[in-house]
């Protein structure tokens, strides 16, 4: 059971709730704080104080005072008018993450909603109702207005949701589970959609998958090192300690552990003096990729426990303050930075693929073909990898450097953080396919060299992957192999290496 307080949620708990469907509850202290916060809103309404978004219009309409009899309509109109997202919907995984993160933000007790509203989120999480939320339409400032409006529709019994493996009208799902839709009161519509939970949900799930993929890329790189009889001296830890980047040191340590005992790797001068950079510089490049991931992790850990609403209600001082915590710039920067790491992991992987298939760069069969000339082998797999890498380069352009004014120039600078997060996730999927292609080629290369000469750990990985994709004995439709192996990489989680008594490599 994960207990939401608004301040203590961890990335590991997000993973448990989103992927393992662990149940959620609301901390008792949070219930009390939310209630106190709500009472301040009601007191201020009773005293006829003017409060943005509570008894005024929104955005450019902030100077329009709303009559008391229209306050509930104001909130409902807000949700209806802002639910204009477009494009394919987010996955159920992302939708579930958005529910969790929005509930946690409201649990902090600064948003002026009733406890009942937060419990609606938790009920949806616990029964597995996930709103259908279009991916496109957010500027990433004033919050993820369009995506979060579609999330809010589901709380009202409107729109569509995923439930029990089916896409259906929300009312049908609520009827099946016995949950009543909620009716919004003053401030609550605005509290639902002012926030960064779309970009942050995409960011968190991309980070979690990216962490696993970088570990996997190291295993595959180690197998390529064996298939190309790479020089192990370049991974001597003295080199990496001399530079001092911790992530680089850790990658070099893991590669050494992965190829320990291998008869396929070589020593300096045995076959050549130096390897190409795509082999020799694996720790330097992937270490830097880990740095982008770690920076992203730091920002996400703050944001999943952040208050990103506007205005904020401070119950102890009985004050309502308008600010800009909804602006997504911190996450926009983090996701744009992460994109560089994702892109470079694919870039260097594709260069190793080229070295594995190009007969001018190795002594393996041309294009790893079982019958070169008559059969093309892995020739076009390298094309596909190159295409994915090139697409990543266009997606890597930073979204956060763009801004388009909105709401009659009241909202005159926006982050485009949700675009950055979406592109990072798309790049991750592209990179996973590149890694899958490298793995197909590396497995073929070590077979040619002799799998009995492999290191114990890479041999274990080889044998598992061979259950998914068989050896290339003749040309076939390799697209199916790539997709099966990509799915295997997506689902595979358990692979550990121990060093000096502690786990240093852990996909679990």
From TrEMBL:
GO cellular component term of the entry, any: cytoplasm
Alphabetic keyword roster: Cytoplasm, Histidine metabolism, Lyase
Main location, first listed in the record: cytoplasm
SUPFAM superfamilies associated with the record: L-aspartase-like (SSF48557)
InterPro entries for this protein: Aromatic_Lyase, Fumarase/histidase_N, HutH, L-Aspartase-like, Phe/His_NH3-lyase_AS
E.C. number: 4.3.1.3
An annotated Gene Ontology molecular function: histidine ammonia-lyase activity
Modified residues (2,3-didehydroalanine (Ser)): 142
Pathway: Amino-acid degradation; L-histidine degradation into L-glutamate; N-formimidoyl-L-glutamate from L-histidine: step 1/3
Subcellular location(s) per record: Cytoplasm
GO biological process: L-histidine catabolic process to glutamate and formamide; L-histidine catabolic process to glutamate and formate
Cytoplasm is among the record's keywords: yes
PROSITE patterns according to UniProt: PAL_HISTIDASE
Crosslink (5-imidazolinone (Ala-Gly)) position: 141-143
Recorded catalytic activity of this chain's protein: L-histidine = trans-urocanate + NH4(+)
PTM per Swiss-Prot/TrEMBL: Contains an active site 4-methylidene-imidazol-5-one (MIO), which is formed autocatalytically by cyclization and dehydration of residues Ala-Ser-Gly.
Pfam families in alphabetical order: Lyase_aromatic
NCBIfam families named in the record: hutH (TIGR01225), PRK09367.1 (NF006871)
Record-stated family: Belongs to the PAL/histidase family.
Annotated protein name in UniProt: Histidine ammonia-lyase
Protein source organism: Oceanobacillus limi
Encoding gene per record: hutH
């Amino acid at each position: 059971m994960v207990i939401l307080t608004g301040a203590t949620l961890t990335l590991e708990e997000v993973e448990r709730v989103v992927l393992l469907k662990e149940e959620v509850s609301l901390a008792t202290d949070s219930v009390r704080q939310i209630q106190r916060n709500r009472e301040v809103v009601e007191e201020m309404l009773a005293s006829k104080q003017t409060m943005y978004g509570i008894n005024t219009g929104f955005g450019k309409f902030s100077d329009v005072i709303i009559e008391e009899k229209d306050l509930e309509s104001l909130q409902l109109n807000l949700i209806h008018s802002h639910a204009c997202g477009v494009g394919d919907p987010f996955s159920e995984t992302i939708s579930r993450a958005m529910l969790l993160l929005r509930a946690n933000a409201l649990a902090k007790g600064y948003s002026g909603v009733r406890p009942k509203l937060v419990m609606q989120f938790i009920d949806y999480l616990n029964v597995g109702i996930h709103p259908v939320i279009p991916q496109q339409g957010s500027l990433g400032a004033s919050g993820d207005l369009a995506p979060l409006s579609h999330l809010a529709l589901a709380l009202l019994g409107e729109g569509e949701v995923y439930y029990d493996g089916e896409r259906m009208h929300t009312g049908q799902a609520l009827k099946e589970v016995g949950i009543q839709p909620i009716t919004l009161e003053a401030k609550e519509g605005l509290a639902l959609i002012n926030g960064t939970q779309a970009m942050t949900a995409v960011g968190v799930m991309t980070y979690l998958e990216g962490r696993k993929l970088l570990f996997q890329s190291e295993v595959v790189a180690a197998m390529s090192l064996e298939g190309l009889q790479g020089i192990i001296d370049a991974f001597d830890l003295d080199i990496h300690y001399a530079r001092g980047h911790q992530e680089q040191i850790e990658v070099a340590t893991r590669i050494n552990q992965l190829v320990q005992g291998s008869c396929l790797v070589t020593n300096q001068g045995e076959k050549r003096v130096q390897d190409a950079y795509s082999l020799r510089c694996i720790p330097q490049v992937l270490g830097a990729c880990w740095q982008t991931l770690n920076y992203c992790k730091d920002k996400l850990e703050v944001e999943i426990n952040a208050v990103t609403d506007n205005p904020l209600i401070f119950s102890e001082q009985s004050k309502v303050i308008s600010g800009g915590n909804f602006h997504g710039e911190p996450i926009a920067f983090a996701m744009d930075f992460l994109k560089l790491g994702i892109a470079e992991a694919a870039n260097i992987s594709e260069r190793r693929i080229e070295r594995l298939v190009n007969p001018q760069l190795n002594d393996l069969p041309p294009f790893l073909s079982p019958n070169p000339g008559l059969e093309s082998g892995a020739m076009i797999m390298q094309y596909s990898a190159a295409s994915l890498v090139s697409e990543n380069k266009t997606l890597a352009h930073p979204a956060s450097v763009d801004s388009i004014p909105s709401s009659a120039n009241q909202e005159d600078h926006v982050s485009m953080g949700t675009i950055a997060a979406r592109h990072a996730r798309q790049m991750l999927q592209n990179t996973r396919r590149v890694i899958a292609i490298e793995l197909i080629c590396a497995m073929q290369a070590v077979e040619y060299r002799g799998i009995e000469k492999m290191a114990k750990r890479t041999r274990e990985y080889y044998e598992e992957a061979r259950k998914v994709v068989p050896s290339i004995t003749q040309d076939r439709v390799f697209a199916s192999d790539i997709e099966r192996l990509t799915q295997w990489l997506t689902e595979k989680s358990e692979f550990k290496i121990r060093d000096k008594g502690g786990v240093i490599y852990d996909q679990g």
